[in-house]
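FW: tagging you since you asked about this chain on Friday. Here's the raw sequence from the shared folder, copied in full. Didn't touch anything.
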Amino acid sequence: MTAAVELAAARPVLRGDLLLGPAVRDGAGWTHTIKDPRTCWYFQVGPREFFIISRLDGRRSLGDIGREYAARFGRQLAEGHWQQILGLLAARHLLTGTDDEASIARMAEAGRRQRRGTPTLLHRRFSLADPDRLFSRLEPWLRPLFSRWFVLPALTAALVAEIAMAISVRALYQQVRADWHYPPAWIGYVTVMWLGLALHEIAHGVTSKHFSGASSEIGILWRFPFLAPYCKADDVLLFPNRWHRVYTAFAGVFTNLLLVLPFCLVWLLTPAASQAHVLTAPLVLFGSAG
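HL: got it, structure written out here
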């Protein structure tokens, strides 16, 4: 009885530097993401667990939280439930007073290994730079591109170009099919496609930084038989504003649309027999489809 009373009176405190994300749909249910910035670990919990965790502020006792929980979910939390959730939080050093620098360093290293996965001959990640520092430098220079005065006209132009390409898809296909033996066209396509992938990933990272998110990793991904750039911008799950999550997800596609736009104009405005017309056909066709 005394132990139960002491537990109800306890006021554990969640670490103040943790980042708590909003509810995000995950299949048929909802999840919240919690980020530990010291280890870069992301923990996903359900709404019931988040209800408890988000109230560990030192002002409410566990008894107070238990009564709020019962009123919200119609269920009392037993002593075993409290011990389980507090034990998990303490084991991950998410509560004030559970710091252990050696354990935190091990968790940070384990997080880096998990993000990169187990390297094999067919799959490997090569981290190239500190993305947060890179995007912190790029974002102020690119901030005007987030203005509606740029985004709306640019998006309108890209959509008009895509509609024009959809109308001309038969001619595009015939052009590509007729010149598929022409090496410069395919060399140009592969080069621009790879550049587009790099800009696609950078756009996710810069947009995440614009909305105060961090990127944990940027580099090259080898997944047989493809070699492609990648950027991990997992902080998108922490944005409270749903539209900021949408913008960050759409940023890569938007960048690719803008990249295809000048090639669309060249293809539309050059004579059918010209080299520029031939070279831009696969870029426009596959770039738009991509």
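FW: The mean pLDDT is 90.
HL: agreed, and The first strand starts at residue 19 and ends at 20.
FW: great, closing this out.
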